[in-house]
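note to self: dont lose this again. the chain is below, predicted strucutre after it. 720 aa total, dont forget to put it in the shared folder this time
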Amino acid sequence: MKKQYALYSTLVVILLTSQACSNASPTPESGDATSTAIPGQGAAAPTAIPAPSEFAPTAIPEPLPSGYMALLQEKMASGDWTREEGLVTLLKVFAGEIQASEANLGEGVQETEGTGILTLASGYLDTGTDPAVKEEIIRLLSLLVPSQAALDQYSIPESEANRRGAGLAAPARQDEEACNLLWEDGFPDARTPVYPCFKHGDRVIDGHLYRVYYPLAWHGDHSRDEFYDATLAAVELSIDKYNDYGSVFPIYFVFSILPDERDTADMTIYASTDTRWFKQRPERPETEGPDTEACPVIINPAAMALGIAAFKQTIAHEIFHCFQAWNLERQFNGPGEDSWWWGDGTAEYFSNLVYPSTDAEYDFADSFNWMSQTDPLTTMSYENFVFFQFLGNTIGEEGVIALLRTLPTTPGRAAQLAALAAVPGMEETFEAFVRSVLDQTLMDSSGRLMHLKLPLDANDVVRFSDIGIRDFSAEPFVFARYIVIFDSEKSFAVETLSVGVGRSSWRAGATMGGWAPLPTPVTGGCEDLPYLMYVITTTPAAVRTESLAATSVTEAPCDECLLGRWEATNGSVLAYMQSIIAAGGEDVPTVESATGVMFLQFGSSGTGAGGYENLKIHETGVGGNANTEVFVTFEGFSSGPYTADGFEMVGLGQSTEIMVTVQIIANGVSVGTSTVPIGAEYALGSTIPTAYICDGDTLTTYPQLEGVVVEPIEWIHISP
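---
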């Protein structure tokens, strides 16, 4: 026990005495109960010790490429494709002109969205040098993305399709075949239709039209119709949400009826975000006519395998790509593939705001876990939903949009990283992000904690059994983390040295929070003691290195008797509190009762916790007035490493989350209640050795207070 903790109890009594006079009564302003709180603090501390993150030193299998953009980059880097070959091949796969097995796609990708590839293909029309490739790209894009004007020629309103009935709405067999040929032929605008191929449903929001084209051949097929309805529902929710952040203009959605020749890779959905085709441009020459084309989103039948909930979030993802092209056109399209680290990352994050409980973005959690250990944020894509979730929680959704506006408008991955680094306070922000993931305190849009399992490769787990030295390094915006294990029943004198700009910090693996420099000495418990550390930098071209040296090792036997959870007897808590108050002199209050739980918990790895679960101390006679009483309630815990040699214990105070609530009652009426946090100096842990006797299922501790003799505390062993 800390002497400061005991003195704090006395301080509480003195404070309360000053607030309650001998004939105290409620003031008109206070009423029966007055509550005050420190701004920004919660009303209560945690009532249970959170489970620590699980970090297993396992070999991590490399995930599939996150999407077709990542696959293209991999194959270009390996020399399997040129950019031209990759773009044309993937567009042909999307169009169903070649099978995946013919395209050498390997095992495929995690996310089969095609938006990024269409964007790169459109960009090639501006920057590419091969005329034949450009001509082929134009042909394939025209095939994949029919214009809304062409679609309108071959569609009827939903109301007309409904009047026909499910069996009569579909076109005749010869017309259905003609519809397929019409799509393959690229919807020739000059052709006058004599048959409908689609029905369309409309939503008008803030004066803008959002239209969904659905094959008439599917009308009445309930297994497919529900996706048509889901698209319209997703439009309403997404547009309503995104209108809060910028301008959203017309969008049209098309369920594709292209022949599906793909065998092992499905392309589910894509938006064409090249704004030359759909964004209203005041500078457009009048001779070209009005630019009224909406942003197109094409839905392949493979998307129906997603399930309704995931399908809706995917539609919200694609709508946000249209939002990006309208509101962040230069930042989004200008850099080409270099902007997709945030293009897909924010589309995942904002779609999660529309559907906060669907959690489709978690499909990329494992990929984030694997890539973030070695890759900077600016080389990932969908995986960055984790980072943007943290940013959104920290600076708000509008703040995220404002940050995106500061990013480069020309190609260059280094420029993206430099712009991110230049955001004011980014190093502090990135460190807070890293800690929130490691401590599992990052909150999802649904209000639930995001539990990201972060297994570590065996190369990132280091053991110290004797003297030695090890370096740990990280490059800009790489989330480098390591486990350093210290052998059991040994005490290590350690020295650390930080080289390069950036940040590093440590915490015991079985605790939460309490990040700090590595203490010295470090002592293993009855079992090995793992420490978790991170090394980060946000400075472009910098390398941050943390060196750890164990300079000496001595034996440090552990006391197995302490292992497990202990709870103090209420009688000994009452006697202990009364002995503290008695040191205050004359007219001291009387401790009438102690209810609730005061506990200690000792882990075998050398970490533990001590705290309170609704421990309520009832005192009467405050200020010498028999009619004044006080209730002091302790809630929360402190945690950290500890050492115990069979005679004295020290530790448990590395991290503290404890709240104290004080209620004053005078003449039977409450005159005030206040809840405040208390710092580490008042934790149920100590940097001063505390004598103890452990015998079987009983434990006695002897708190040390300078100049004061206090009663010992008796503890009962509750669980191993």
